[in-house]
Amino acid sequence: MKKIIVENLKYKYPLTNELALKGISFEVAKGEFIGIVGKNLSGKSTLCQALVGLVPHFYKGSYGGSVIVDGLQVLQSEISELAHKVGIVFQNPFTQVTGAKLTVYEEIAFGLENMGIQREEMKERIDDALKLLDIYQFKDRNPFDLSGGQMQRMAIASIIAMKPEIIVLDEPTSQLDPQGSEEVFKAIQNLSKQGMTVIMIEHKMEKIAKYSDRVMLLHDGEIIDFDTPQKIFSRKDLNDYGVTAPVFTKICKELEIKNEATGLYPITLDETYDLVVKYNA
Amino acid sequence: MKALSLYQERDTIVHKVDAISKLLYIGISIAISMILPYKTVGLACMGVSIILLLIAKVFKKVIPLIGFSMIILLSIIIIQGLFRAGNKTPVFHIVNLIFYKEGLLFALEICIRVINILCAFAILILTTKPSDLIESLVRRGLSPRMGYVLCAVLQIIPQMITTMETISDAQRSRGMETEGKLSVRIKAFLPLIGPVVMNSLINTRERSMALEVRGFSSKTHKTFLNQEQNNNYNKIIKIILILLLLLAITWRLFI
User: Among A33, A70, A182, B9, who pairs with A85 as Cys (CB 3.0-4.6 Å)?
Assistant: First the structure.
């Protein structure tokens, strides 16, 4: 079943002359983990915001084509209606704190209160989300007293507690240390295995290569390629689009070590290890 | 974190009473002292408020509040004592300024009322979390948007102050003088206020997006994480308060 269907999406921000998205079309199935890569200003964030309805409802501007998310036509739906289906986590954790709640626990409840969830269920969901992101021990702290990384986990938890069917993450681990971002990736992968559709923008290519089912390469508001991470990162013209392959792929490209079966370069550590051992044998 | 609130965390009976009862108490204790313009009634209301403050263990925090209003109250006492129309009976004199009984009594009445109002409000402000107060108002029909604004102001202003401190530290570390004479301080203030305002405007846009995607403008009926403290004991307090008000009105009308 297709969760997201985007057809020829074009969008221009108000007061600008150039299209931010130039006719994008793609489909995403339920439970897929999609990574979006591309250099700055390539339209990654705009595309993500188009999935949750912030584009065009929040920014206005000119809009063409259609985005259908879980059967809802974005152009005809309100953001609060879409919020039941799709959640988004932004880059800056600080501005995602509502500022109206005194504890982390209440902060996560904010979205659930707005959705009209009953108390008992609310508590269950909040506990689950806090434990999943490993911030349960901070539940009684003031949200502003958390560190950047903890705040980022809280931002993710507050969207996960709303149980959307699709979650969009815009560089969700920018403030986290390597261990923290690995944990967050694992938590998100778990959700993805449970059937949640994940769309993620990320600059840490090793992570994208390891976790995503398919990778979308964006450049200048257009989709250059949308395929398995092996195929995307084996492309010879990656540098032209301001994207670097995972470090394992780079090494193997230089050494010309390819996976015989697929004719593609390896993208994860394990895969590389196997191939290098075989190469040396 | 610094919070923009006078709330004092204590574990007393007064803290457990719900915010609406306290609001009602403010209204009624002011109304009663107006409806029954006797000093004894005014003193009684004031006494009750002070006893409640003592039970809540926050009386110390009220003293500076009363002290601050003393400046105004003193000027009332002096002016009324000296010049009130209808002043007849001299009480005492300082050099050749004569204070009269009628004026002083009138000033006393005003003082009692002002302190009464202050103490009644202090009960609400010192013993209720602002967020609880706002939440109970939202439950009773205050628009959630308004409620959000009230809550957010209390947290975001201290945040802005922190941002200001960070920016001024950054500027100081690059050699700008921010301390010393008034003219130096003013000069340092101008380059500081620009980034702070821009920063908060950008933050506001991002924050409003984050609120929207969490269903802020959703039309479904809102639910609440915290249970309302609506036990019998709070109901009894409200009923007693309303009965007292009715009693005061009948007293005034018929006696």
Answer: A70
